[in-house]
Amino acid sequence: TKDYMTLQKYSGDGSKPVILGNDSTTDFDNGTGTLEHYWTGLVDIRGQGITIDGIEIAYAGHYPNDRPDKTDRPGHGIYADGDSYDNITITNCYIHHIGGHGIGIKYADNLTLTNNEIFEAHYGKLEKTRATWGSAIMTSFDCDNVTISGNTIHGIGGEGLNLNRNGTGYT
């Protein structure tokens, strides 16, 4: 089966739609009565044939230094982590003040990331605390046929582009 969905402004010349977090992430009960952290995005992709166009996404996840317990609870801007999440396009988005990756994609083929502006995406602020940090764009675990072009990246605590783990066909 094929899933196809486009998330974008309805019409006209108005402002970009905005998805704002509250600087928090999602915790869930794993059935043992213990809350565990689930790495997720303000926009969590769970399907294929998804287009996200012209959306502002901001304030996902706590920075560890800002949390009272100093724990590392990153949240991502846009995130996809699963088998068969293919044919994803993210374009013309404005992604900022993110505790983890601005865009994080795993196990996806036919991925297009164009003309996005991503800034202030990092786990431990610019000090890179806890030996971890976020990337503006991260693709991982066998992402194939990936096009990344025309993006503006600045103020990132880790890598601007983090492209790794056996992917092929990058342009």
Keyword list:
6-stranded parallel beta sheet, mainly beta, globular, 171 residues, 5-stranded parallel beta sheet
Describe it.
- Helix content is 0%, strand content 46%.
- By secondary structure, it is mostly beta strands.
- The strands form four sheets. The chain has a six-stranded parallel beta sheet, with no helix packed on it. Strands 2-7-10-13-16 form a five-stranded parallel beta sheet, with no helix packed on it.
- A hairpin with a 5-residue loop joins strand 3 (26-29) and strand 4.
Taking pLDDT < 50 over at least 5 consecutive residues as the criterion, the unreliable ranges are: 25-30, 33-38, 63-70, 123-132
What would the principal axes of the Cα set say about the shape? Answer: globular
Can you count the helices? 0
Helical amount among residues, as a percent range?
under 10%
Order of adjacent strands in the largest pleated sheet:
1-6-9-12-15-18
**What is the radius of gyration computed over CA atoms, rounded to a whole number of angstroms?**
16 Å
Quickly give the structural class. Answer: mainly beta
Strand content: over 45%
Number of strands: 18
Summarize the structure.
By secondary structure, this protein is an all-beta fold. The chain has strands at residues 5-8, 18-20, 26-29, 35-38, 41-45, 50-53, 56-60, 76-81, 88-91, 94-98, 103-106, 109-114, 117-121, 137-140, 144-149, 152-154, 161-163, 168-170.
